[in-house]
Amino acid sequence: MAFGVEELRVLRRALALALHPRTASAEDVQDCLRLADSLDEAMREGARLRAFLVADLARYRAALPGTAAGYLTLLEEALSAGYRPEVDDLAALRALRGNPVAAALLDRCLTLAEQDVRARLARGTARRTAPAVPASRTRLLALPGGLSEPSSDAGEDHAEEAAEKPEQPERKPVEKPAAPKPAPGRPIPTPGEVFPRRKPTPPPPNPPQQLAAG
Predict the structure, then answer these.
(1) CB atoms within 10 A of CB 31
(2) Which pTM value belongs to this model?
(3) For the packed helices 87-95 and 100-129, what is the interaxial angle rounded to 10 degrees?
(4) What are residue 71's phi and psi, to 5 degrees?
(5) Which contacts qualify for 182-189: CB closer than 8 Å, 24 or more apart?
(6) Per the domain annotation, does 152 fall within a domain?
(7) Distances in Å between the alpha carbon of 10 and those of 13, 38, 199?
(8) How far apart are CA 41 and CA 188, in angstroms?
(9) Could you list the pLDDT tens digit for every one of the 214 residues in the chain?
(10) Which domain holds residue 56?
């Protein structure tokens, strides 16, 4: 993307305003807005050109090996425009490696592909190592197999949790009713008085014996 003299002047003023904030004039604001619109239009146009270039590259790749010269030219132009080689491009370049231009483009595409793989692996590692929850919530406090000695941080966490919980009124122990006491002045009966011993029943008297006559 190339800037003209007027665009560079506006860009310099915009950078000066960003570095030294002050009240911008209406003319400066309008110039910055026009520059932003021009940049957006240039980016959209660049995206359209890359889309056409990639479509032409796919057509030339599908017609290989008869279109090797045009394919290699389009591939080099697409790489300069930010295109990342695909698996089909690597396979086509390996088939054309007898061509010096194709061999040089193959080395370039392999380097770019290796850089893409390393970047994806680095992003995946960064996502896996990023903590999902705050560190203060990842400590095991009261679980079996945790720390044998409570740390000061654990004590602070317990204090915070206790402060968050509402205070509950203390429950008094329920008193059991006491056994009834005997009335004063009345002696406690003994078991013998409550359950008197029965006297044995006397045997009945013997019947009178009659003397035999004579």
Answers:
(1) 19
(2) 0.48
(3) 150
(4) -65, -45
(5) none
(6) no
(7) 5, 12, 133
(8) 113
(9) 566 777 777 778 777 777 776 777 888 788 888 888 888 888 888 889 889 999 999 999 999 988 999 999 999 999 988 899 999 999 999 999 899 999 999 999 999 999 989 988 988 887 777 665 555 554 544 445 544 454 555 555 555 555 555 555 566 666 665 555 555 556 666 666 666 666 666 666 665 555 455 4
(10) 5-129
d(CA 136, CA 179): 56
Contact assessment for residue 131 and residue 104, using Cβ atoms and an 8 Å cutoff? no
- Give dist(CA 60, CA 73) in Å, integer: 10
How many domains is the chain partitioned into structurally? Answer: 1
DSSP-assigned letter for residue 113: H
Rg (CA), the chain: 52
195, part of any domain: no
Bond from prior residue into 202 cis (ω within 30 degrees of 0): no
H/E stretch holding 163: helix 152-164
